[in-house]
Structure formats: structure tokens, C-alpha cells
């Protein structure tokens, strides 16, 4: 145990009385009355932390694979991991070759990720000037908020959805105004319009396909929201599985639209952290100024470029996952205590019915080495989400579920 010496006086000039503040920065003379000493609070590390962050709850991340493996007493390869929407096929072989022959890991990366942005321009059909790359889409969500929000500004969130928006808003001292989705998980556009008018949130986060239910936002709905006086951040982390074209090119037409995408799902690079976004030129300029200069590592850029060199592999993996999603859906429909929702993504949300407990279901499957996602928040307490894996993963899940009938 480390014991720190008791500190008897504050270091920060936070008191209103000038008489007291004089004492705060110097050792008190030995003649200082005892009473004065007792009144001063002890100095603790958390007193330096910004007040809004002292109340922050940590983001609920999944357990690291090795930790999970130890906890379950199973080798990582014996775990059926269907809890974090990862892509079980892994990246194209070109990625491993490129990482293995990386020449300059000891040199800082290109702060502008030029090679990758040029490749993404070809891949997405929008010029590199509109594209910025980040350490995952997660970094870009935070960067957008840091550039857009003053403390006390509001964001509009439409739960249930990706909880990172709410989390980053809290980190950035912003307030979250919620317009819950309808019971079929579609957006309540009328309410969104009212709230934009009344509360004047600065930006809205829309996810299509939405995590956790896999529903998509149609063009008519998106256009209605784009016509409101609000910055629209459209998160397309799972767009490849939807059969719908990305809206990246729309940022040339709409000054209030940002579109985010990622290599985590489509190219199975979740562990290397590469996300990207398309931004109007009038916005991207400020993100360039505010971002960490070396936010995309040499390894991340090399891996993402190599993945884009093999579009056939990426397409085949996507087709395999979409086919497996349909097979998984049919199987889940047959489970007497699950009600799966049709999904345009690489996961399927299921309502847990017949009086079964969703948390217990997750725990029972985990004991059999099958990981699925359960939610601790109120609105999704009775649901689980299952990521789409390889056919053998579906088979293992179904076998384990049958043991619980
Ligand atoms: C909707 C959504 N957006 C963004 C992300 C994060 O993407 P990245 O891995 O690029 O940070 C996720 C991750 O699961 C997600 O579900």
C-alpha cells in the first residue's frame, strides 16, 4: 500500500477570501492558529478532475479476449464469440503480408493518412479532400463533439442505439436529449422535429443500420431530418451488410451531414482501430486542426490499405455473413423463448420471451463457451443481441440453446 503524506492545505486558488489564498501556496508559519489549519480540506487527486467527469460512469466495454479465455477456462479458439459484432473471417491475406513486411514502424505515421485516403476515395467515390481517418469511428465521434459542442450544449440521441454517443457527450460536458425510437425501432421523426425546435440540440446521431436492432433509415426520413437546423452525424458502421449504398457522397450536397464508417466490421480490423468519415469541406477543416496529429498508426494505415487491395475478399466475406444472417434468423425463430428482429446488419436482436431471463440466458450460454450480448439498461433488459458468425458458430449456438429448452 502506498501511503501519501497528509496534506494540510490546498494548492488550488479556489477560495474566495484573499487572506486564505495567501496561505494556500506557502507553508504555513508555525504560529498559524490550529483552528485555521483544521478548516482547510485535505487535498485529493480527484479534486483536480473536471467536475462533470467526476460523475462519469465508465463505458461498458466487452472483456478482452485473453481475459475472457482465462475466465471461461477455454482456449480463445474454443470460444464462440458473438457478442461484439466482430467479423470472424479476419482480414484479407494481404493485410498479414503487409504488416509482416512493414518497413518503417519506428517513424511517425502520416498525420494526413494520404495513402489510405486516396484508396478510400476510389473505394467510396468521393474525393480524398472530404475524407478524414481516425483511430476507429469511435475517435471520430469524440472529435466531432470536441469541435462542435460547448459545455452545456445538447445532442439528440435516439435510443436504443450505440451508447458511445451518450458516453462521449458526457465526456464533452454536453447534455443528451433523448427521443426514443418507436416500438419497431424506427425513428420518431415528428418528435425529433419538435425537440429540435424546442431544445435546439446542436447535433443528432443517427445509426443506419442501427445497433442493436439492425434497422435502417430510409432516404425520405433522412431527408426530413437533414432539413432541420441541426448537424446530422450518420453512423454507417454496418452499411456494407445492408445492401444499401453509403451516403458518403451526400456530404457534398448537405452542409449539415457527416457520414462515419469503419474498417472494424467490413474488413475485420476491429483490433487495429481504423474508422473514417466524409465531411463537408466547411467542417473538415476544423477537424484537421483539432485532431491528434498521429491518430492513425503506421500499422493501422498499412492494414487498411492492404484490405482495400482485395475487394473480392471483402465482398465474399460480406456475402457469407449476409447469407449466414438469414440462416441464423430462421434458427432463432425456432427457439421457443426468442423473438428475433429482422436485421440489415451483422447481428440480430432478440426479445427474450416466455418468462426467461435475458441475463441468465447470456450467462448460461457463456458457461458453454458461447458469448452473446446482454444489456443492463432498462429499455433493453429483456433482449439479447447475437452477432452473425461463421456457419459453425451458428451451429454451436443452436446446440447450446437446445440444451436450455
Ligand atoms: C454503430 C457503431 N458505430 C461505431 C462503432 C465503432 O467503430 P470503430 O470500431 O471503428 O470504433 C461501433 C462499434 O461497435 C458501432 O456499433
Explain what this protein looks like in three dimensions:
The chain has 405 residues and is α/β, with parallel strands linked by helices. A hairpin with an 8-residue loop joins strand 11 and strand 12 (383-387). Helix content is 38%, strand content 13%. It has helices at residues 18-24, 34-39, 51-54, 65-72, 93-100, 114-124, 136-148, 164-171, 189-199, 219-226, 263-266, 281-290, 298-308, 311-334, 358-367, 391-402; strands spanning 80-82, 131-134, 154-157, 175-178, 203-207, 231-235, 257-262, 275-278, 338-340, 347-352, 370-374, 383-387. The longest helix has 24 residues, at 311-334. It is globular and about 55 Å long. The strands form 2 sheets. The protein has a 7-stranded mixed beta sheet, with helices on both faces. The protein has a 5-stranded mixed beta sheet with strand order 1-11-12-10-9. The chain contains 16 helices and 12 strands. The structure holds pyridoxal-5'-phosphate. Residues 85, 136-138, 162, 207, 211, 235, 237, 262, 264, 270, 275 line the site of pyridoxal-5'-phosphate.
